[in-house]
Amino acid sequence: xxxxxxxxxxxxxxxxxxxxxxxxxxxxxxxxxxxxxxxxxxxxxxxxxxxxxxxxxxxxxxxxxxxxxxxxxxxxxxxxxxxxxxxxxx
Length: 90
Fold this sequence. Notes:
Elements: E1 5-8, H1 16-26, E2 29-32, H2 38-50, H3 57-65, E3 72-76, E4 80-83, E5 86-89
Parallel strand pairs: 1-2
Antiparallel strand pairs: 2-3, 3-4, 4-5
């Protein structure tokens, strides 16, 4: 299986330095989903399913995650990093 990009989210991914380190270590493109409340969203998915709002976790996941609008990309291009279409020294 060839992995070309890695999706990240959660509070720590607000750190550009952390994301740059991940990009360097993995040698892969990092895509930050823009949501730092991943843990809360997971709890919401489970609670909504238990309360009968959704019949299964997968449906809750699809509905709740479809509300993501932001997508930030960080990738190593050999010279530095590209973050939201701006070059950042690497």
